[in-house]
TrEMBL record:
This is NADH-ubiquinone oxidoreductase 21kDa subunit N-terminal domain-containing protein. It comes from Platanthera zijinensis. The keyword Transmembrane helix applies. Residues 11-89 form the NADH-ubiquinone oxidoreductase 21kDa subunit N-terminal domain. The chain crosses the membrane at residues 34-53, 59-78.
Length: 100
């Protein structure tokens, strides 16, 4: 079974790393990635708090919403970072940094 994503679609931008490891992908997070992660987490915490119908369930509901938001935000940031390294998203900064 072929799990190589480039077999389905060819990158439009220069490829920095065809199969970036976890550590390189996380180290490549931009300020915008962190902003998106924190925004998604913040909205999820608020929605979790407001969805707690009874006052004694608002705390656990807020924590659950926050965990879901942090995981979702991290996955979104990871997807964008990996996409830039693999050449699927605009990556001028990555090409300049890793070209050395």
């Amino acid at each position: 079974m072929n799990t190589d994503i480039t077999a389905w679609e060819k990158p439009e931008y220069p490829v920095v790393d065809r199969n970036p490891p976890f550590t390189k992908t996380v180290a490549n997070f931009s300020a915008l990635d962190y902003l998106r992660l924190s925004t998604i987490a913040g909205v999820s915490i608020t929605v979790g708090y407001l969805s707690g119908i009874k006052p004694n369930i608002r705390g656990p509901s807020m924590v659950t919403g926050g965990l879901i938001g942090v995981m979702g935000g991290f996955m979104y940031a990871y997807q964008n970072s990996a996409g830039r390294l693999m050449g699927f998203f605009p990556n001028e900064r990555e090409v300049a940094r890793f070209k050395k």
